Amino acid sequence: MTNAMIVFAEGQRLAEEGKIKYTGRTFQLDDGTICRETEPIHTYTVWKQMGFQVQKGQKAVAQFTIWKHSEKDKEDGTKDEKMFMKRASFFSLSQVERTVAE
User: Fold this and answer.
1) Where would a tag sit more exposed on the chain, N or C end, judged by fewer CB atoms within 10 A?
2) How much is the average pLDDT of 25-44?
3) CB distance 2 to 67 below 8 Å
4) Which is it for the CA torsion 78, 45, 50, 8, positive or negative?
5) Regarding predicted confidence, which is higher, 73 or 95?
6) 41 has which bridge partners?
7) Does the pTM exceed 0.70?
């Protein structure tokens, strides 16, 4: 399962539990299933890369395990690459504010 699939499934679960909001829009999956769109959830790092800051005092809306890629330079000039599962904290759109002008 990819990170995108993990985050999508967790987002649907969080919305069903009332922890994040639905946007009011729907979309259709490849298999024909109609889904309700949820507000986006991302890690702190991803929100920061997108020009947002998690609001002071906010706690993660969820923590779950995703894939992490690690790359290290070896002494012989090659790279040591690893993929592993890591627990990450996620914040929703309603918990962040834009830090850069559009």
Assistant:
1) C
2) 95
3) yes
4) positive
5) 95
6) 92
7) yes
